[in-house]
Structure formats: structure tokens, C-alpha cells
């Protein structure tokens, strides 16, 4: 993407954009605490006083691990596609140009490790589109290389993808899981269509419309994920009572020598004296309920490569105290 006079000088006096970079994570963190406090100001102040900022930032960082590859690859594909189709520059083209090749390659590696199995065909489609469009842009007169990268390679990858994922595709259709079926079948076949130019007339509306939609909906998607991320350990405290023991299940805010502060699941804050605590146990994270049981040789489509390769410990029986029942 090195056309003469094609890229205009970058607008100046935009240092204020750098000042806005930390604003979005800070807003997410405050909203997460506001959500956890059930919109109660006093509870919010209590959480702000005792929660470590590192724990809050970890939820945002873990979210960006899988969001950034999508933004980088999507921006590179849309910007290069618009330039090849029209030969005109725009903010989208300039953004794609400023993404170095090593950043795109790193985004692919991160996506392979962090994305779920059902999104890997989409990752392969975006990677092939980036490679094909780069060849069209840098080697416009090299017919042999263009035929290999833009046509032969996507077709070969599509055939291999359908062979490898066929058990999961069949299971998804059998379970009537439309979303998983489309994610496993459509991207490999569409890869060959994204390596070439689109008609000049709708090129701007298509590429820039998708880019604007990504820019608008990505913060909302990240916000939804962060709102559900755990920020406090889930504990079950068995308390001594006059008649029968009582179990208090909630998130431990702070604990000192005399008292423990617990935020209940319903948002009620309880202050418990430590001498009343008979026992306590760390409860497992309930996590998200699986939306599909489709798997590929035991690798469920909602699992990432990292979670599939990491040795999973044997499932321990759920402690009755985590279910609100006293333990004898």
C-alpha cells in the first residue's frame, strides 16, 4: 500500500486523543462496581475503598485479549479492500496502513490461542483475506502469486477446514444450533470472496459502514463482558447460631482481625464478627452456562486452544456450604 500521494498528512493537534485512551477502561471499572453494588452509592464507596485496582484491570485486559485481534484484522481487511477497489484514500485506508505486519501477525497468533473453537474458521478467513489483499496491493502484476494466494490457498484451506470440522458441523446441525453451524460452515467458503476487489460504487458504503459498526458496537460488547467478570472471591461462611448453623454465601470484600465484610449475591452488605465463623470455603466460579454441547473430539466449541491444551483438574464435588447448606 505505497501509492504516491495517496496518503494525506495525518491531522495535527490530536494529542487530546491520547488523553482519552484511559477514559474507557476507567468508565468500565466504575460501571462494573456500580453494577456490583446494585446502584447503591454507599456500597459503591465501600467497594472502591477495599477492592484492588489490579483485580479490576485484569478483567478489562482479559477482554481485550480477544477483542484486539478482531479489530486489527478487520481494520486491515476493510482498509486494504477499499483502496484496491477504488484507489482512493480515506481514514480507513490510513488506519490500515499504520498497522505494521508484525502487529497483524501477532494478532493472528493471539486469536488462535484466545478465540473459541467456533470462531477459528472466521479467524482463518480474516487471515487469508489479509494475505490475499496484501498480494493484490503490493504485487499487482504478479499473476502467478495472486492466483496461488488469492484463489488456490483459500480453496485448499476451505477443503481442509470442512474435513477437520465435519464432526462438529454435523453435531451442530443435528442439535439445531444455527449460530454454531453458520460459524463453522460460512467463513471457509467466503474466504476466497474477500481476497478481491468489490464494485467501485458500493465500496465505500460497504467497507466504511462495517468499520463504523465495529467502532460503535465493540465498546458495548466489551462492556457487557466486563460487567459479568468476577471482581471479588466468592466465599461461603458457616456461622454459629443459637439453634442451627447458618451459611452466608457472598463475595468477600475485606477481612481483618475482628470482622469480615461480605457482599451478598443480592447486593446486601453483611458485617460478620470473626468469632462467629465456624468455617469458610472458597466456592468455585459458577461461570457462564454452556449454550451448546457441540464438540470436536472432546474439544467443545466454546473452549479456546489455551483452555483445551491446559490440563484440567478433576472436578471436585460441590461443597454444600456453597449451596447455602451447613456442613456437619
TrEMBL record:
Keywords: Membrane, Transmembrane, Transmembrane helix. The chain crosses the membrane at residues 16-35, 55-78, 99-117, 151-175, 205-227. This is Uncharacterized protein. It comes from the Bacteria.
Amino acid at each position: 500500500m505505497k501509492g504516491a500521494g495517496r496518503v494525506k498528512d495525518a491531522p495535527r493537534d490530536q494529542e487530546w486523543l491520547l488523553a482519552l485512551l484511559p477514559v474507557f477502561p476507567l468508565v468500565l471499572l466504575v460501571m462494573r462496581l456500580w453494577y456490583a453494588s446494585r446502584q447503591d452509592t454507599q456500597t459503591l464507596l465501600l467497594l472502591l475503598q477495599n477492592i484492588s485496582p489490579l483485580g479490576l484491570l485484569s478483567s478489562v485486559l482479559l477482554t481485550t485479549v480477544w477483542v484486539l485481534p478482531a479489530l486489527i484484522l478487520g481494520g486491515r481487511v476493510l482498509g486494504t479492500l477499499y483502496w484496491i477497489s477504488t484507489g482512493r484514500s480515506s481514514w480507513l485506508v490510513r488506519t490500515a496502513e499504520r498497522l505494521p505486519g508484525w502487529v497483524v501477525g501477532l494478532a493472528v497468533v493471539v486469536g488462535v490461542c484466545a478465540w473459541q473453537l467456533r470462531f477459528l474458521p472466521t479467524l482463518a478467513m480474516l487471515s487469508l483475506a489479509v494475505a490475499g489483499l496484501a498480494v493484490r496491493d503490493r504485487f499487482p502484476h504478479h499473476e502467478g502469486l495472486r492466483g496461488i494466494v488469492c484463489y488456490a490457498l483459500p480453496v485448499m484451506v476451505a477443503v481442509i477446514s470442512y474435513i477437520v470440522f465435519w464432526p462438529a458441523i454435523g453435531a451442530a446441525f443435528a442439535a439445531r444450533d444455527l449460530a454454531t453451524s453458520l460459524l463453522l460452515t460460512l467463513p471457509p467458503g467466503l474466504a476466497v470472496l474477500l481476497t478481491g476487489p468489490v464494485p467501485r460504487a458500493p465500496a465505500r458504503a460497504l467497507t466504511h459502514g462495517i468499520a463504523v459498526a465495529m467502532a460503535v458496537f465493540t465498546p458495548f460488547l466489551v462492556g457487557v463482558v466486563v460487567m459479568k467478570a468476577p471482581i471479588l472471591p466468592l466465599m461461603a461462611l458457616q456461622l454459629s447460631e443459637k439453634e442451627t448453623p447458618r451459611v452466608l454465601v457472598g463475595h468477600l470484600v475485606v477481612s481483618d482481625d475482628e470482622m469480615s465484610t461480605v457482599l451478598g449475591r443480592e447486593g446486601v452488605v453483611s458485617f460478620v464478627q470473626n468469632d462467629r465463623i465456624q468455617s469458610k470455603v472458597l466456592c468455585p466460579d459458577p461461570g457462564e452456562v454452556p449454550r451448546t454441547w457441540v464438540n470436536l473430539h472432546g474439544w467443545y466449541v466454546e473452549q479456546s486452544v489455551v483452555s483445551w491444551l491446559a490440563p484440567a483438574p478433576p472436578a471436585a464435588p460441590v461443597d454444600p456450604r456453597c449451596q447455602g447448606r451447613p456442613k456437619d
